[in-house]
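Title: Prediction job returns without error message
Component: structure pipeline
Severity: low
Priority: P3
Assignee: unassigned

Description:
Job completed but the reporter wants confirmation the result is attached to the right record. Sequence as submitted:
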Amino acid sequence: MQTELVVADSSDADLINSLLDEYLLELGSHRDMHSGAIISTSYPYLDAYWSEPGRYAFIIQCDSSVVGFALIRDPTSTKSAVYQLAEFYIKPESRHLGIGRSAIRAILKRFPGQWELQVHTRNSAAVQFWESCIEAIASELLQRREIQTRDGRRIQFHFSVEDTV
């Protein structure tokens, strides 16, 4: 199996919207409170990935089939010193095959530095996935803490990635 990270642009908006709909539907079951976008048309940031500096959209493919997407913000977009993994999704039928881990490795290799990501505490499979990825790929876990957001409790990870991933 070959995982590929493909840079998405505005011509890929319909594909990303479709994947975002699947992702948001699944994400809704992990929120403590119903708040935030529930479908791609109510997701307020997607258009910014086609026009705002410091935002990157990727399509994740495995053996030339689309299996997911990732949305990244760099420090110029976050107005902080960290990269943020804003959204990350692998279709359920493509999970547990190493595709997500391979995609994350490619993303972190492309953008070494300080990172932040958040996971809903009720999504125990995702918490376990991210803990495992960070342990395997990051040069240092800087902080893991529980935070309260408008849609509920999340685990927030801060970690560092060297350019030798």
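Comment from assignee: result matches the submitted record. Residues 59 and 69 are 4 Å apart (CA to CA).
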